Amino acid sequence: MNTGFDLKEFHWMVEMVQTIDVGLVVLDREYKIQAWNGFMENHSGKGASKVQNANMFDAFEELPADWMMHKIQSVFMLKNRAFTTWEQRPHIFKFKNYRPITGTAEFMYQNMTIIPLLNLNGEVSHVSLIIYDVTDSAVNKLQLKDVNDQLKDLSRIDALTQLFNRGHWESQFSQEFIRYKRTEQATSLVIFDIDHFKKVNDTYGHQAGDKVIQAVSQCVRDNLRESDVAGRYGGEEFTVYLVDTQADHAKVFAERLRQGIEQLVVHHDGTAINFTVSLGVAEVNKTMKTHKEWLEAADQALYKAKETGRNQVCMAK
Ligand SMILES: Nc1nc2c(ncn2[C@@H]2O[C@H](COP(=O)(O)OP(=O)(O)OP(=O)(O)O)[C@@H](O)[C@H]2O)c(=O)[nH]1
């Protein structure tokens, strides 16, 4: 007889299940709790005797009941395990997070495995839920994503003006051109440049020049619609494309910008500085083969605006 040995082994098993650092729950077909280990007791604040035989969804109303029932039912039916990750549902049981390192997370992030438990007839009479605390790795992953998003923004945005930098703006612009080729929806490009900007730098200094560039950028932002995309194309050269906008409407936008900038005053070292811009406008058309040709058309219009007096808007031919 080795019953004593078996009993001892059984005792150890129960002890391990009770103290292991994952949550263990056994449910019957009616979602009634049949087993509830120490992890679940400690984190939920509800002892096994309190929840024994209670319907789990009644005892824990925060659970995503429909979603979980669907998962559990498929385990009963298919006799296969199911696995869910915190990326699908961050928190299954809403347990408070007490980990010192990831103290920023309010609730414990959890993965869950659902295991079919067979009775002696080979039928699934119960399922076991195993709840893993994955708060540390989830928080690390979320923080990494946050930093990556910030880096992505930094690589797209010009530091002085907070407009898109040339590289990012041009890649967006080339996509817009491709979209035009498919949809043939009118889109216009405005390209503009601060007049005699060298003189601003030479007279008032580089810092004053920077302030002028920032004031111009703010004026651009103030005049943009949601769908317009603006960039700093060069030192004191800016580009904006206006989606779903014909040339005559783009001209109105450009004229409004011209007047707005003409009225700006930048104060530097007790001096009031005024400035103007020249603008070129080109609507995309079917003869253009690449986005560069579109840029070229707007640039030629800008050149004309500069050549024929500055502080004006010229339209591409
Ligand atoms: N302060 C400042 N100046 C810049 C920056 N980027 C370019 N510049 C200056 O912008 C000036 C551009 O001068 P030009 O291209 O000769 O043109 P302009 O004086 O504006 O004359 P027009 O365009 O013909 O009206 C140069 O003096 C550059 O040094 C910048 O980020 N900050």
Please describe what this structure looks like:
The chain is α+β, with helices and mostly antiparallel strands. It has helices at 3-19, 38-44, 48-51, 56-59, 65-78, 135-156, 166-183, 197-204, 206-223, 247-262, 291-307, and strands at 23-28, 33-36, 82-84, 110-118, 124-133, 188-194, 229-232, 237-242, 266-268, 271-273, 277-283, 313-315. Strands 2-1-5-4-3 form a five-stranded antiparallel β-sheet. A five-stranded mixed β-sheet has the order 7-8-6-11-12, with helices on both faces. It is an enzyme of class 2 (transferase).
Descriptive key words:
317 residues, Beta-Lactamase, Alpha-Beta Plaits, 2 domains, 11 helices, binds guanosine-5'-triphosphate, EC 2.7.7.65, diguanylate cyclase, PAS-like_dom_sf
| Percentage of residues in helical conformation | 40-55%
Sketch the major β-sheet. 5 strands, antiparallel
Number of helices: 11
**Strand content of the residues, in percent?**
15-25%
What class do helices, strands and sheet pairing give? alpha+beta
The ligands found in this model are: guanosine-5'-triphosphate
The CATH topology of the largest domain corresponds to Alpha-Beta Plaits
Low-confidence stretches: none
> What is the CATH H-level superfamily of the largest domain?
Reverse transcriptase/Diguanylate cyclase domain
H/E element sequence: HEEHHHHEEEHHEHHEEHEEEHE
Largest sheet strand order: 2-1-5-4-3
CATH class of the largest domain: Alpha Beta
Euclidean distance between termini CA atoms: 103 Å
Shape type: elongated
Query: How many β-strands, per DSSP?
Result: 12
Radius of gyration: 33 Å
* CATH architecture identity of the largest domain: 2-Layer Sandwich
